[in-house]
Amino acid sequence: MRHVDVGLVAKQQDLYDGFDDQYQCPILDEDKVIDELEEVMSEGGNVVDYHGCDFFPERWFHVVVVLRTDNTLLYDRLSKRGYSGQKLTDNVQCEIFQTILEEARDSYSHSMVHELPSNTPENFEQNVDIICTLISEWTSAHVK
């Protein structure tokens, strides 16, 4: 499996469409990202890492995993990363309102979308096992 860190690819290839002054971060050009990743994604065998999903074509994925975090833990994690003000508030509110989970459910087949907790090191280990099982099950059913 190949890890595709969309944020890193965007940074390396300058796949931006301006800068958001409020959040102090570049604005991702989703069309450029899709164009940049199309060939790699068509080869298969990728794990795509990003904090949103609605602009990615469903044909790229067999499994979509949404990691969820307790709001207090998320607040502390983001604060340690230097998030503050509106950026911090909006990120925590997105988790409270399950924004990314709903985005995934609206964008992909419900059978593809899996919600997993991401609060503890034990969750991390369990999630790796679950994801490996999902990949193995899909591979057994679809790859001859």
Features of the shown structure:
144 residues, alpha/beta, Rossmann fold, 2 domains, two-stranded parallel ribbon, 6 helices, 19% strand, kinase
Condensed summary:
This protein is of the alpha/beta class.
Give me the secondary-structure topology:
Layout: E1 2-5, H1 6-13, E2 16-20, E3 25-28, H2 30-43, E4 46-49, E5 64-68, H3 71-80, H4 85-96, H5 99-107, E6 113-117, H6 121-142
Parallel strand pairs: 1-4, 5-6
Antiparallel strand pairs: 2-3
Helix pairs in contact: 3-4
InterPro entries: Adenyl_kinase_AK6, P-loop_NTPase
GO biological process, one term: rRNA processing
GO molecular function: AMP kinase activity; ATP binding; ATP hydrolysis activity
Specify the CATH class of the largest domain: Alpha Beta
Main beta-sheet annotation = 2 strands, parallel
Distance between the termini: 17 Å
What portion of residues is helical? 40-55%
Poorly predicted runs: none
The structural domain count equals 2
Name the CATH superfamily classification of the largest domain: P-loop containing nucleotide triphosphate hydrolases
Q: Please, how many helices?
A: 6
What is the H-and-E element order? Answer: EHEEHEEHHHEH
Rg over CA atoms, rounded to whole Å, is: 16 Å
Strand content: 15-25%
**What best-fitting shape do the alpha-carbon axes yield?**
globular
Biggest sheet, strands in spatial order? 1-4
**Strand-pairing-aware structural class:** alpha/beta
